[in-house]
Task: structure prediction
Amino acid sequence: MPSSFPLYLAEVSFCVAVFGLAHRWWLAGLRHFAWDRAYLLGALVASLVLPLLLWPSPQEWLVPAPAAPAGGGLLWQWQWRGAVAAAGPEAANPEGDGSAQWLPVLVLAGYLGGAGYRLWGLLRDLRWVYRLVRHNPRIRQQGYWLVRVQAAPLPAFSFAGFVFLSAVHDALSARDRQLLLLHEAVHVRQRHTYDLLLAEAVGVLLWFHPLLKYLKTQLKDVHEHLADSAVAHVAGAQQYGRLLVHLAAQQPPVALVHALSSKQIFARIHLLTQPPPNPMKKLRFLLVVPVVATAWLATSACNLPSHSSATSVAPSSVTAPAVGGVPIGRITWQGNTVLSTEQLNQALGLKPGDAYDSATVARRLSLDPAGRDVASLYLDEGYLFFSVVPQAKRQPNGTVDVVFTLSEGPQVRVRKLVFVGNKKVAAAELARLVPLRAGDLFSRRKVMQAQKNLAGSGYFDPAKVAVNPQPVMKNGAMTGLLDVEFVVMEKK
Result:
């Protein structure tokens, strides 16, 4: 029974860590996705509920502060018991150093600031979705509303009972569009949005917890695998695998690197070609019994009555805030065989002593609109499935070491160029506008230049030029070859 809100946060943090590490060590990689989804959702709910078991009445959460300045407000009249204990003996001594009395207020202000920022971000995203629904035409389909986004080219996605498509999906064939809608309809039918809303709500409460991002990522991956399995069952793994690469290429360059391409899309296609998982591996989910028992016993032990007048919180159950705004110590690259460390550091543009910022690191890795990032070095040399994962490690000297783990993947070559929709202009003439030839290595820069050349040629509607890379598959496996299809619409 937590005697204070800070202690409750510490106990919830501990439970999240236990459930998250148990999943990472024993359950990650299992292909029983419905069971995995149940575990991840149960982990979030149990983390919130277990510390609340046998809680006392709300009057016991707060205790009068030993000292209160004259004229102080309600915040000075009451202190959380755990915060008073953390402040030390000076907080209970009205004649001692008054700076200790500010510590719980500063901690509270920092926590509320972080939680408020996360809540503001969640509400902003919800407002963005609401505006899309309100300001774009929608059609009622079987089981969901289809919203046609007109303002901006967005990837297909779903939220609650809505499925969103934009102009970039007009070039899809009728069959591919049907499969895409089926994929998003699975998300709607299985109510995946509410799973993510639960994860976001917990994220507001525990905005400082690093394992929450892992649990949310795993939950989103499980959603995608569930939808992939449902569509592949209808269309077949090979046809649906081509559609996945097709959709990844239609998104902006940011998504081509960071979202569906790289090893994520390769892993999704690979899973579609695997035989059914061994049912006996479901027995691993019995792990939930000792994990729940461990979390419950640990939180109960923290809430045992103490002979002292204050309740202490074990430091091991408190999760440190995320790293940010501290100097970089060392920069390490792992897994790079194509490019040297010096070349990667030059593309990264950061050096020891610079301030660490996750947004800056993400932009230098794959989010530079000008294409001057690390991912562009690989994507322009045929490494379509390249990915890089950064990890920041805080050091005792106050710096943070950054480790980048690369997965370069195989090189992909162009087998042939295909033009669809050109009735008046010969394919040979269009091929002269494309800086790619059969046998060349795939290059994102050249593909984007080809799309720009075709859009500016005057033959076609500039908004109706799409590029559809289609990996060549053999026996359900990648061959290292790629057909690049250009879909155009001639002007009337």
Residues 1-322 form one domain. The longest helix spans residues 103-135. Residues 55-97, 250-263, 305-324 have pLDDT under 50 and may be disordered. The two ends are 73 Å apart (CA to CA).
